[in-house]
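Form 7-S
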Amino acid sequence: MKKPKKKIAVEPELVAKVKAAARDEDLSCANAFALAEKLGTPVRLVGAAADEAGVHIVHCQLGCF
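Output:
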């Protein structure tokens, strides 16, 4: 049985930036990593912001999302 994911608190500004970077509610894994680097934030937070925004991470490179 899988453990439920722990919800991570995300700033509304990060959620808005993820939404802005997404296309048709999709954000590529490479773009998620690039956004995290550009903003100086952990990739995990970008993933949590995507979850909150209803944005799907696609073309995942490492299975992180």
